[in-house]
């Protein structure tokens, strides 16, 4: 993560640096899903702004939407597993919003 953060500072216009950072954060969060949901949530939330920016800047790159949708599902799972079903539903809805343009391109 530190390497991607440094690369992003040095070359902020290179989308692969932002994507690499987001994926590293998402993966770290996924590792914590079963045992440390607060850490999972922390890392997923850290990844989302990077993914959202990539989607905004490069709307035709499907993979950015797929990873954002998966990250939202991971966040939903942390809420679901803690009995916060309304919050989980909100994150599942965000996942659907992220993924819908892939299934229904206009």
Observed structural traits:
5 helices, 106 residues, 81% helix, mainly alpha
Outline the structure in words.
The structure is a single chain. The longest helix is centred in the middle third of the chain and has 21 residues, at 37-57. Helix content is 81%, strand content 0%. The protein has helices spanning 2-10, 15-31, 37-57, 62-81, 85-103. The protein has 106 residues and is an all-alpha fold. The mean pLDDT is 94. The radius of gyration is 14 Å and the shape is flat.
Gyration radius (Cα, Å) is: 14 Å
State the distance separating the first and last CA atoms.
35 Å
**Structural class of the helices, strands and pairings?**
mainly alpha
Number of helices: 5
How much β-strand is present in the residues? under 5%
User: How many extended strands?
Assistant: 0
- List SSEs in N-to-C order: HHHHH
Question: Which overall shape is indicated by the principal axes computed on the Cα atoms?
Answer: flat
Instruction: Characterize the main sheet.
Output: none
Portion of residues within helices:
over 70%
Unreliable spans are: none
The average pLDDT value, as a whole number, equals 94
Topology:
Blueprint: H1 2-10, H2 15-31, H3 37-57, H4 62-81, H5 85-103
Helix pairs in contact: 1-2, 2-3, 2-4, 3-4, 4-5
Quick overview:
Helix content is 81%, strand content 0%.
